[in-house]
């Protein structure tokens, strides 16, 4: 059960309205998470700006795979549902989506990014030299590593928000990933 009410169109704070309207226009509806997050124009707009900027990092499939690994570790059912759907729209097959939730991918380069993101979130950033070497050896630059760290942080912000406020889910629920 949601822990706070989502906004209705008539009570969106003026400073959140342009950002929320953009999401609504792009998605074709207003997700409950965003209608709740928009209660704080400062936090909502900061997250939306970070999200929009990080959408330029890496490629879509790699970002979705990283996100799924983070969502699974953080136990965010809302984001798992949303992004399992988004990953399927990005043409990731169901078995690849489940693999991503466990911090892996079938493509070797994406697998290195997924494993690195998984290690970041599980260890709270306390990764080893070997972890850095593995992701670099897969072809990622230091700039890419920074982008992966930023993606983990941005995805985690959404997870923490959803885990605290528990907005009603707009997407089909996903099944448990099993042991990680």
UniProtKB/TrEMBL annotation:
<dbReference type="Pfam" id="PF02627">
    <property type="entry name" value="CMD"/>
</dbReference>
<feature type="region of interest" description="Disordered">
    <location>
        <begin position="1"/>
        <end position="20"/>
    </location>
</feature>
<protein>
    <submittedName>
        <fullName>Carboxymuconolactone decarboxylase family protein</fullName>
    </submittedName>
</protein>
<feature type="domain" description="Carboxymuconolactone decarboxylase-like">
    <location>
        <begin position="44"/>
        <end position="106"/>
    </location>
</feature>
<dbReference type="InterPro" id="IPR003779">
    <property type="entry name" value="CMD-like"/>
</dbReference>
<dbReference type="InterPro" id="IPR029032">
    <property type="entry name" value="AhpD-like"/>
</dbReference>
<dbReference type="InterPro" id="IPR004675">
    <property type="entry name" value="AhpD_core"/>
</dbReference>
């Amino acid at each position: 059960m949601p822990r706070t009410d989502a906004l209705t169109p008539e009570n969106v704070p003026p400073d959140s309205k342009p950002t929320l309207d953009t999401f609504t226009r792009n998605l074709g509806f207003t997700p409950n998470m965003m209608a709740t997050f928009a209660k704080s124009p400062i936090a909502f707009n900061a997250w939306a700006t970070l999200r929009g900027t990080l959408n330029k990092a890496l490629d879509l499939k790699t970002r979705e795979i990283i996100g799924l690994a983070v969502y699974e570790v953080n136990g965010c059912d809302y984001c798992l549902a949303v992004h399992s759907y988004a990953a399927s729209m990005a043409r990731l097959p169901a078995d690849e989506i489940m693999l991503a939730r466990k911090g892996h991918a079938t493509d070797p380069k994406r697998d290195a990014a997924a494993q690195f993101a998984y290690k970041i979130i599980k260890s709270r950033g306390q990764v080893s030299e070997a972890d850095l070497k593995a992701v670099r050896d897969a072809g990622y630059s230091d700039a890419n590593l920074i982008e992966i760290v930023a993606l983990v942080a941005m995805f985690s912000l959404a997870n923490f928000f959803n885990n605290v406020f528990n907005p009603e889910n707009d997407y089909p629920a996903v099944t448990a990933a099993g042991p990680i």
